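Trying the structure run again after the queue cleared.
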Amino acid sequence: QVQLVESGGGLVQAGASLRLSCAASIRTFSTSTMGWFRQAPGKERECVAQISWSGGATYYADSVKGRFTISRDNAKNTVYLQMNSLQPEDTAVYYCAARNGPISSTWSRYDYWGQGTQVTVSS
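Done. Tokens:
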């Protein structure tokens, strides 16, 4: 069955870097899109970054643009999120998600979700 597994989260100080990984046990298709979302307690789920597996299109939230980079390795069915210059406001549970369709910042349009990995940034 479909399964997405995130890894790479942790506790770091402001200014540090982390790389999140998401291993997807699914067959990818030309219309599949992978995304990273995050959610902090008491806040709405927020789209962080997205990438099309075959189209090469990417999306970044304004709050992370220039600091985060999403990438993929199609041979390994893995998507990454390189996070640089982390700030306390980046603290959240980060979720990997997949959908059959174009990039969309609406979380409900994603079909599959991982369990999440905690990222905590201290000042």
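DSSP finds no helices and eleven strands in the chain. Worth checking whether this holds up in the mutant runs.
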